[in-house]
# Entry
Amino acid sequence: MRRRTLRSALQRIESMPAADLFDAANSYFGLLRQSPSSHHNRADLANAMRKRGFTVKGDLTKVYRRTHV
# Structure
């Protein structure tokens, strides 16, 4: 993935409304999974999602909603 594409995806994630964020993040992870050298990109996306309050699967392939207790 090009740096510019990743940068714009991260900017969208940071400014996206919370209602749309879950589906969009899983879509981005699906796209990144197709690239064999995308581990660093997936880690950047995972960090952005964790900042927004989501849980990320250990192999950086899926986002989960946190349950509020």
